[in-house]
Amino acid sequence: MNSQPASTELVERVRNTLALTGAKPTPAHVAAALRADGTVCGDAMVLAVVTALRREALGAGPLDILLAEPGVTDILVNGPDEVYLDRGHGLERALVRTGDDSAIRRLATRLAAAAGRRLDDSTPYVDVRLPDGTRFHAILAPVAAPGTCLSLRVPSRHVFTLDDLVAAGALPPAGTPILRDLLESRLAFLISGGTGTGKTTLLNSLLSLADPSERLVLVEDASELRPDHPHVVRLEARPPNVEGAGEISLRDLVRQALRMRPDRLVVGEVRGAEVVDLLTALNTGHEGGCGTIHANSASDVPARLEALGALAGQPRDAIHSQVASALDAVIHLTRGDDGTRRISEIRTFTRHPNGQVSTTPAVDFHPDNTITLHPPASRFTHHRPDQVGAA
Question: 1.20.140.10, 3.30.450.370, 3.40.50.1000, 3.40.960.10: which CATH number matches 60-155?
């Protein structure tokens, strides 16, 4: 009995035959299509073709096998048969055949349609969340080269605890009580870092430590946060439809969240004009708010906030004034050359006599698992230095 996987060419021929007759990809219909094609094969090959066709119709096609692998965080397709994945230690080539660009395009179009979005030559890119929570982005050729490109960000299958982060080398053991103290002090904070540094993972971990009596209202562009907490309300933005109507922005949702009695207002990623509404909320009695932000370093966060505020037409002095009153700390994450994600430091916000805001080092986390405490850490550190292992 033939046990080889079905070739792309064979699957394509059977697909075309079934399309002409309107038959479903059942074993009987596939076997009949193979016979009509003059192909001689056994039961195993028939089942392999059926599986391939059903994956194309229902799942993520040839990428399903990668999505099912434990530990995979990202899957990237750069045109025909060029697939990379990230298991948390950097990108590696995956030996998966995707077929030609037409096959990738069909897969991208179907996944976009499943999320209620249009993907074609008039709208050659899409960014959506799939039903299983996977973040899916596609951009079609010839806009993308060497072919249609897909990017899938796979949600974590479980919420990491701080102990898990310690075990993974992302946090020194002595850092656990510091992060707990920061959260319990109900300070407003941002988690900064580059793409793929683990900002959402850390925010999930911290929100899971919030008092069970607190009501968490999460505002996100695409729902990724899944804190292990009994009282969570999620608000998700919606892009405009093909007619350009129906958009619900993050800014709209932040305003709505304020009317929902949040004990903690959380913006999954601060990336635009919604920063003004978030800062306003944190300045009007909504303690303990938090979110993530892209920044190269913790010291760059004030400038990043200033740039985002400019998108909402806010002058520089107004944004710095808001930041000084609204935010207490920023936790910065980095990713090493070996792909290891690590919490590198915590800084507090300091306002200078000229009204401008900068960040001041409060806690440094070193790769050798030691930490250094600076005076601003006393704002949220309730443990003695010897208890947290200060260097």
Answer: 3.30.450.370
* pLDDT (tens place) for every residue of the chain, 391 residues total: 344 556 666 777 776 676 566 666 677 777 777 777 777 677 777 777 766 666 555 567 788 888 878 888 899 999 998 999 998 778 899 988 888 899 899 889 988 887 778 899 988 999 888 877 788 999 999 999 989 999 998 877 778 899 999 998 899 999 999 999 999 999 999 999 998 888 999 999 999 999 999 999 999 987 888 999 999 999 988 877 667 778 898 899 999 999 999 999 999 889 888 899 889 888 887 889 999 999 999 999 999 999 999 988 999 999 999 999 999 999 999 988 777 889 999 999 999 999 999 999 999 999 898 999 998 888 888 754 444 544 4
Q: What CATH number was assigned to the domain covering residues 162-388?
A: 3.40.50.300
Torsion of the alpha carbons at 366, 364, 298 and 266, rounded to the nearest 10: 100
pTM: 0.77
- How is residue 195 annotated by DSSP? T
Q: For residue 384, what are the contacts with CB-CB under 8 A and spacing of at least 6?
A: none
Which pair of tokens denotes residue 216?
Answer: 């968490």
